[in-house]
Design brief:
This protein has helices spanning 7-16, 34-43, 56-68, 85-88, 118-131, 149-161, and strands at 24-27, 48-53, 75-79, 97-104, 132-142, 168-173, 184-190. The protein is built from six helices and seven strands; from the N terminus they run H-E-H-E-H-E-H-E-H-E-H-E-E. Strand 1 (24-27), helix 2 (34-43) and strand 2 form a beta-alpha-beta unit. It is α/β, with parallel strands linked by helices. 33% of the residues lie in helices and 24% in strands. Helix 5 (118-131) runs parallel beside helix 6 (149-161).
Length: 192
């Protein structure tokens, strides 16, 4: 029997196909910085990563993780809500971003009362769609196990379903049950 890869490994494998050295990418929900570091290493020292998070402890942990790996120079960490993504990324990069990643839910090891919500996530997804270059990838992992998480998951599914097929290729993956409720991964590839 072939062992299953963790969801994070599947996501990063897919995202890696859309990254080249010197690319620009966004981690819209930094959390503990695992994806931020992955993105920074994938684009190399000439790339640029923008990482956004509302919680100072998340940004501090991420900064430490990046510095320990020697990857802090190409990362700009931004304290704020992902809802303001369009204003947080420099205008000259709009339409030039290779990848935007989201992990929705709460900060692992942090305050579980601070969670993503559809009211901020939907504008963030729309902003992310405008940031992407042709051929770019929007990756959204939804962890619905928090208050309001099921509603957020349904809103993300609806948002994805509204993308015009002529402009977007939409895919969805949910791992086998075992975790209640299970996470769901959506990815949207902007057609060239």
């Amino acid at each position: 029997m072939t062992p299953r890869l963790p969801l994070t490994a599947l996501v990063q494998a897919k995202v890696a196909h859309h990254l080249r050295p010197a690319a620009v990418a966004v981690d819209a929900t930094v959390g503990n910085g695992h994806d931020t570091l992955f993105l920074a290493q994938a684009v190399g020292p000439h790339g640029q990563i923008y990482g956004v998070d509302l919680q100072p402890p998340a940004l501090q942990q991420t900064r430490r993780r990046l510095e320990a790996a020697g990857a802090a120079a190409q990362v700009c960490l931004i304290a704020g809500s992902h809802a303001d993504l369009a204003q947080q990324i420099p205008p000259h990069l709009h339409g030039q971003v290779a990848v935007v990643m989201f992990n929705l839910g709460y900060l692992p090891g942090g305050d579980h009362q601070i969670v993503t919500r559809q009211e901020s996530t939907l504008p963030a997804l729309t902003a992310a769609a405008h940031l992407l270059a042709p051929g770019g990838l929007l990756s959204v992992v939804v962890y619905p196990g928090h208050p309001g998480g099921a509603e957020e998951a349904a809103a993300v599914a609806e948002w994805m379903g509204e993308r015009p097929p002529a402009q977007w290729q939409i895919s969805r993956y949910s791992p086998a049950p075992g975790r209640r409720p299970p996470p769901c991964w959506w990815w949207a590839e902007r057609r060239p």
